[in-house]
Specification:
With 412 residues, the protein is mainly β. Helices cover 14% and strands 51% of the residues.
């Protein structure tokens, strides 16, 4: 036992340096293993958007950015494996400062920083951003309406050859000068009624390409698209007052008799006739001619002249008497179960027709018929009015006097 203790004691005291070396090797091995498990690595993060600082100062001097050659940068970061792998791209802040630049071209350094102390930026691609600066200007530009498609067959649409409206635009001088017009594109395919379209304007150059980075002050417009039909509408003469006593208007004609118009399918709510301005015929006795204008109505556009020549023919009135036998009176609304008899002591009814000379000359005795309405009449004696019809129709404008106005009818 004593021998064993002496061996252990000698081993510890006599081999100190060997033991110290072994401890060093153990620590070194530990460090190697730890470095192997969490080595220093790099990582490329693509498409990092950079901020633009100094825009407010730039704009105060009337300068604007017209173009940049790159909108993102690629950043390579460096750090231990654990830190790099857990790094979030949002922790990178990249920017360029444009506040001190003037009109022209410039290559501006990209400045990138990271919020994570465990990583650093190794490389940025590109190192510089090429920026074009230009003077800010405002200009008024014309609007061009472009219609796409075809309206329903038989209809037409306004072509908008000239659109009387300009819009202010703002942007780089170079780009604003390239603007030929602001385009408003509207789909009209198979449309059959006028409509309002909410249209977004785009700036176009001479090649028809869209110019970007242009500030259009009013970029959306409500544009009325009139869809219409072309027709020849007859002209109706409008008069006021009464001609002299014992005179009447025989005819009111116009030259031309009809006018070609463009009718808006949405706005025009009138009838199918055009009306002249009102002509005063008070106390007139002689026929006359007069050139007058046509009343303008919303939704109507004249394709021909809007004036017509009116000829109003005035003639003296005459009276013509026509005697109609009582048995020629027609009973309307009879009940087949009853018998009907007119109680009138005369054999004829006298119809006095008062009209202008030309109309009187055209009248024939058989143009007129007499009726009495017996609908819903029961047995007994009834006083009923005599109804005069000319050529089978009531003529509300005719001046008739019938003697007697009423007859008695007995129903049995």
């Amino acid at each position: 036992m004593k021998r064993i203790r002496n061996f252990s004691k000698n081993l510890f005291l006599n081999n100190f340096f060997v033991k110290l070396f072994c401890l060093f090797l153990a620590v070194l091995l530990w460090l190697v293993v730890m470095d192997y498990e969490n080595p220093v690595v790099t990582r490329e993060i693509k498409g990092v958007k950079y901020e633009i600082h100094g825009l407010e100062e730039l704009n105060k001097r009337g300068i604007i950015i017209e173009n940049v050659d790159k909108k993102t940068v690629d950043i390579t970061i460096k750090g231990t494996w654990n830190n790099v792998m857990s790094f979030k791209p949002d922790d990178i802040k990249s920017y360029i400062d444009v506040g001190d630049y003037n009109v022209g071209k410039a290559s501006i350094n990209v400045i990138s920083v990271v919020n994570d102390i465990g990583v650093s930026i190794k490389e940025s691609k590109p190192l510089k951003i090429n920026v074009v600066f230009d003077e800010v200007v405002e200009r008024e530009k014309n609007i061009k309406v472009v219609l796409d498609g075809k309206v329903k067959e038989g209809l037409k649409v306004e072509k908008f050859d000239s659109f009387n409206k300009k819009i202010m635009v703002r942007g780089p001088l170079n780009r604003v000068n390239k603007i030929v017009h602001l385009e408003a594109k509207i789909n009209i395919d198979k449309k059959e009624k006028s409509f309002i379209e909410n249209v977004e304007l785009v700036a176009k150059d001479s090649k028809g390409e869209v110019l970007k980075n242009i500030d259009i002050k009013k970029s959306v417009l409500d544009i009325y698209v009139p869809i219409y039909i072309e027709k020849n509408l007859p002209v109706e003469v409008k008069t006021k007052g009464k001609v002299s006593k014992d005179y009447g208007i025989f005819s009111s004609d116009t030259e031309p008799a009809s006018i070609k118009v463009k009718i808006d399918t949405d706005k025009y709510k009138g009838d199918k006739k055009l009306k002249t301005e009102v002509i005063d015929v008070t106390n007139k006795q002689i026929s006359f001619k007069k050139e007058v204008s046509i009343e303008q109505e919303d939704g109507l556009t004249f394709l021909d002249k809007s004036n017509v020549k009116v000829f109003i023919k005035i003639e003296p009135k005459e009276t013509r008497k026509i005697k109609i036998p009582v048995d020629k009176i027609t009973f309307v609304g009879k009940n087949s179960e009853y018998d009907y008899k007119v109680l009138f002591d005369k054999k004829e009814v006298v119809l006095n027709i008062i009209d202008v000379t030309s109309n009187i000359a055209k009248i024939k005795d058989n143009d007129f018929t007499l009726e009495i309405d017996l609908k819903n009449k029961e047995k007994g004696k009834h006083k009923v009015p005599i109804i005069v019809k000319q050529n089978g129709k009531l003529n509300e404008n005719a001046n008739y006097k019938i003697e007697p106005k009423n007859v008695f009818v007995e129903i049995k």
